[in-house]
Design goal:
By secondary structure, the chain is an alpha+beta fold. The chain has six helices and three strands, in the order αββαβαααα. It is 38% helix and 11% strand. Strand 1 and strand 2 form a beta hairpin. The N and C termini lie far apart (100 Å).
């Protein structure tokens, strides 16, 4: 028996991953679903939304049966993050998983600001622009931002409290 034949004849899993609200995030097929899920956990930006307790793994007698079930699931269950084999639109550039980065950082921005910024620098230029700004800021920590009187200053808790609670006036 060839390696290809043994792979085609091997029991095959169809796995489904869900978020905490029970929404189907992804459907996949694998001979070793634990290894495949670990790859997704390392590589996929959407993995942070996965609720591992809701992951479902169904076994099929061979690869053909597994792929048949995966295709049926893709057509009828509308997983959010599957693109291949679905009618889902391609993932926008700013949501694709970057390669070669250990940590992915989140920015808290209004959607309208992010969209306008993408229009300004181009969808694929956001990361490079933000990285260039951060590098410039690290090299120029005391240079004020436009419209600011000074550069960033780390406040102590005591200084922050003074700005929130001004000294009480004494009556004469």
């Amino acid at each position: 028996m060839t390696l290809l034949q043994s792979t085609l004849d091997a029991p095959t899993a169809v796995y489904r991953v869900f978020d905490q609200l029970g929404r189907l995030l992804y459907v996949g097929v694998a001979i070793d679903p634990e290894v495949r899920l670990a790859c997704h956990a390392r590589e996929k930006l959407w993995w942070r939304d996965v609720d591992p307790s809701r992951t479902r793994i169904d076994w099929f007698p061979n690869r053909h049966a597994g792929i048949t079930e995966e295709n049926r699931a893709l057509e009828t269950e509308s997983p959010i993050h599957n693109v291949a084999g679905t009618t889902n639109l391609p993932v926008p550039a700013h949501l694709r998983e970057p390669r070669g980065y250990d940590n992915i950082r989140r920015l808290r921005l209004l959607d309208s600001v992010w969209i306008e910024y993408g229009t300004l620098v181009g969808d694929s230029g956001r990361s490079a622009d933000i990285q260039a700004y951060i590098e410039w800021r690290l090299d120029n920590p005391d240079t004020p931002l436009p419209g600011k009187r000074r550069g960033p200053v780390k406040r102590t808790r005591k200084a922050a409290m003074r700005t929130v609670m001004p000294k009480a006036k004494t009556q004469d």
